[in-house]
User: Fold this.
Amino acid sequence: MKELLISQNSHWMGSKQDFIKRDKLSTLIEYLPLKQIITISGIRRCGKSSLAKQAINYLIESGINPYNILFVNLEQPYFLEYKHDANYLNTIYEEYLKLANPLGKVYVIFDEIQFFSNWQVFIKSKYESSDIKFIITGSNSSMLSNDLNTLLSGRSLNIHLDTFSFNEFLNFKQINYSNEIEKISNKIAIKRAVEEYMNWGGFYEVFSIENENLKKEILLSYVKNIIYQDIIPRYGIRNSEIVERLFFYLLSNSTAILNYTTLSKIFEISDKTIKEYINYFEDVFLLKRVDKFHNKEKEQIKSQKKIYTLDNGLLQLSTKFSSNLGIKLENLVFNILNQNEKNLTYLRDTYEIDFYTNKTLYQVSYKIDDEKTLNRELNSFKYFDMDSIKEHKLITFNDSKKIDNISILCVDEFILSPI
Assistant:
């Protein structure tokens, strides 16, 4: 084990890894002085490990002895035989103490902690008896929240990490956008970046390479790993083929309204099982459902849901959307809103509004050149106009103008404006 710990903690030897700075780093730094456990949740490969390692760099730059910081990726094959023994986490920690001999406060980072069963028991015991600052990462939202709430209620602070935001994507491409002059000067570059981001999403390993076939292979490997490592074994699902087929079917129907009865007939399983499987997809941050708005919370919970994928790049795995720019744009707008708004819903009656949140109506249409299309979108705003509505925003790919009280925004303007 000594060799493994040393290989995973290159900062002990003075080595420093450079990473693209993530926006959530500032929140992580704010949490570091606090006693609470920091949890970093997010889909696999979104950058949770890199964010934690950026915290290591910060701690060392702040004067913390590198030997007082332990990083362990718990999904290493070495730990496979111990995954059902939570006491082995203590074995790892004791081995670290003997190896590094830290003095004073210790920072322990356990990456992908859900790999170990009953991990929260070890964390709780050390949290209460030792001067340890824990940072743990996980790829399952309900597992982290449920397990922490069971034994560690009030003792944790969560940071949810999405794949790279568009702003972070622009930073990677070194395209400046911080003021109006830079936005105008780099207008063409920003528009090209929007198109690329809309098509390929925010996974670093995907957008950092050029080969499109390889991009798709990487995205497919992500999905397969999530289904067969995070869903199938955790929930003891026997028919893994149905789970995979259901996911790709839902992916091919992104932005559409779910019909559990129809899905039940297609896959020949109960609608209850369909809902459970979709819950699992949400837990691992692959998909998300959006409620139809209702003034009564109970009715909203019972409402028909629309389904979206949490990274636009995943749409590439569906041939159905290979050229459907309208679907890609709506899914992109969803992701932007979802990262900033907690109570995202849609409206539907005679007309439909794609998104409703914070007293703002959002409608998405790739092009409004056709008068019939434009009138349809404008009529949707008129139909749902209420005294409580403060803003009406129609997001397109290229158009920007004002019609009455409706702001028509091109997507790059929408993304780079405060929501």
Summary: DSSP finds 18 helices and 13 strands in the chain. The chain has two domains: 2-161, 236-415. The chain has a mean pLDDT of 93. The first helix runs from residue 2 to 8.
